[in-house]
Amino acid sequence: MTRRIRLIADDYGLAPGVSTAILDLLERGRLTGTGCMTGFPEWADEAARIRPLCGRVAVGLHLTLTDQPAVTGRSSLAPEGRLPPLGSLALPILRGRTDERDVHAELDAQYGRFVEALGRGPDFIDGHQHVHFLPVVRKWLLARVAEAGSPALRGAPALAGSGASVSKVAAIAALAAGFNRAMQRAGFTVFKPLAGIYDWRQPDRFAAVLQAAVETLPEQGLFMCHPGHVDETLRARDPMQSVRETEFAVLASDTFGASLDRAGVAIMGARG
Length: 272
Prior knowledge:
The protein is an alpha/beta fold.
């Protein structure tokens, strides 16, 4: 019996080269879907490129609260109009220096841009740098998104995993504590465990992490990845660059296709 695995590419819309690489892999059947960043000026064009694939592949919303321009402009969340680094995001919210309403307004704006451009809600929601696990985002998911049809959510990683950075997995798992249970209780489908975590500064580790998922990831799990082609826009926006080319090459390779065949594994489609 064929086992199926769910492969989701993050960061569609981050830069044209990233979007092009993801579209290529979707057309090849090497991905289940992709999470979209809707806050950039090119979003309308990128939405038009992926719109024909809606229904055939899973198209989700990749919530962004760090390092990029804020859709809502200046606020207590983004005093200069730019979202804070991850390390500077959580504490001001917890101490009340960032108004929770400003965070929710930014999330509302990103969700609204997705629906406006694609004429539909997202198939799933996750977060850039895992921000969907933050309490303030959980509250938004429960209050806003549950009313809109409860798309699937990306869940927490398992505490142990082959080829992954143990400390990185542990940090993400700590951030996600209680998330799976709370969201499932609220009626959301939660894809778990999360796989694909490794030190992206060591791109040669990606193939082994992917192979481990081929061999062991359960059907309810999710493997995240970050394929892309490096262009000037990406260089200006994100430090994760050449490793995206490595991930694309591995996912597009005949070697990966052969490993799926040997393991009796298929890549899951949009409908699961």
